[in-house]
Amino acid sequence: MAVVGQGTPMRGTTGAVHTAMVPHPREEQFTVLVVDDHPLLREAIAARLRSMGAGTVHEAASVAEARARAQAYGPCDLAILDLGLPDGSGLDLVTELRQLGWNRLVVLASSDDPYAVRSAFQAGAQAYLLKSASPAVVTDGVKRVLDGGVYADPTVAPLLATGTRVPGTDNTPRELSAREVEVLQLVADGQSNKEIGEALSLSALTVKSHLSRIGRKLGTGDRAQMVALAMRAGVIR
């Protein structure tokens, strides 16, 4: 998919680039899919996007509608998705669209929970915005993503930065890797080493090694205590 705002520079007979003829990203129209089950919010987002240069804005109020729009229109330049949809998980929809070639995904959510923020980025989102955000913040986030960057609402940015830090038994913060967080979440869900390995395509021995490293970092080899420490830090749910 072509990157929004990247045109081919025109050259004169001397070979110099005429910068006036190179389109600015905001001067090119872009296509958008907005997924939210609240009509007024969805319409407000669509109106703001049109004011920013959106040429076509497709709307959906559910996961099912979003899937239908995605199938009908193919990857748009941008998608803005609510996480709390009536018929399914917005996170699952982010993952699906990402796999279908949608490269610019913005999550618009009401939760500033560290787990939700981190999960959105892990699913493939490029931005996480709160529904309580000001129009200026929404505009900044959308522009950043259209330009190929990532963005976190200023309110949740500190949570994202510290989202994988868990105070160990000595209260010293320890940084857990993304894989270690995944393993701990599955432990919290009550899965055995074998089941965790099957879910993550790992051997039971590798899962055991991950748990050993987590135990060393947190200062405990007790699975229940590791989970409790991670939950209190907001790293897992």
From TrEMBL:
SMART domains assigned to the protein according to its UniProt record, in alphabetical order: HTH_LUXR, REC
Region (Disordered): 1-22
Record PTM 4-aspartylphosphate, positions in chain: 82
Highest taxon in the source lineage: Bacteria
Domain Response regulatory residues, every copy: 31-146
InterPro entries membership: CheY-like_superfamily (IPR011006), NreC/VraR/RcsB-like_REC (IPR058245), Sig_transdc_resp-reg_C-effctor (IPR016032), Sig_transdc_resp-reg_receiver (IPR001789), Tscrpt_reg_LuxR_C (IPR000792), WalR-like (IPR039420), WH-like_DNA-bd_sf (IPR036388)
Pfam assignment, any one: GerE
Annotated HTH luxR-type domain residues: 169-234
Keywords: DNA-binding, Phosphoprotein
Organism: Pseudonocardia ailaonensis
Protein name: Response regulator transcription factor
Membrane-spanning ranges: none
